Amino acid sequence: MPTKAPPGNRFERRRAETRQALVRAARRILAENGDTGVSIQAIAERADVGFGSFYNHFASKAELFDAAVVDALEEFGQTFDERLSGIDDPAELVAAGFRLSARMADSHPELMQVLRRRGLEYLHSDRGLAPRALRDLETGVASGRFSPVDPTVALSALGGTLLSLVELRFTRPDMDGDEAAVNLAEMVLRMLGVSADDAHDVARRPLPDLG
Fold it and tell me: Phi, psi at residue 97, to the nearest 5°?
C-alpha cells in the first residue's frame, strides 16, 4: 500500500494506524465481493478497531470506500512509477502498462480486484494510473510518436481496454494472460498511430520483474 511519512507523535501515529486499518478492511471487502452495504460494525470488526473509531475518521461508509479505492489507485500508480522509471518512450510505457496490469492480477490480486470492481468510475481520476497515462499520451502526441488525437478521449479508450483486460484475467484464468496483454497492447499502439511493425516490436520488449 502507499507509504506516508509517520505522524509526529504517538497519538497521531495511533490515529493514522486506525484510519489505515479501516481503509485496509474496506479494500478487502471490495476485493472479495464489492459489498458496500456491509454494516459499519462489520467493517470495524474486520479492521479490529472500536465501532466509535469509525466516525473519528469518516463521515460515512461511502467516504470510507472512496478512500479505499483511492488508496488502491495510488498503490497501482506507485507500482508503475517504481517499475517503469527507466522507460522514456511513450509507446513502450503504454504497452508496459497493459502487460504489468495483467501480471498484477496474480501478484497483487486484492488490488486488481478493487480496480476491477470500481475502476471504471475512477477512469479520469487525478489519482493512480490515469494522470500518468494521460501524461504519456500527451507526450506521445506532442512528440509525434502518436497520432494527433485528443489525449482525454484516448485515455477513455485505453482505460476501458485495460479494465476489460483485468476482467478477462479474473474470469478466464485459464488463458495466457501475458499473451493476451501483448496482443491488446499491440492493437492499442496501432490505434494510437504507431506503425504495425513498430507496435509489434514495442509490445514485446522485456518487462521489469514485479518482484
Answer: -60, -45
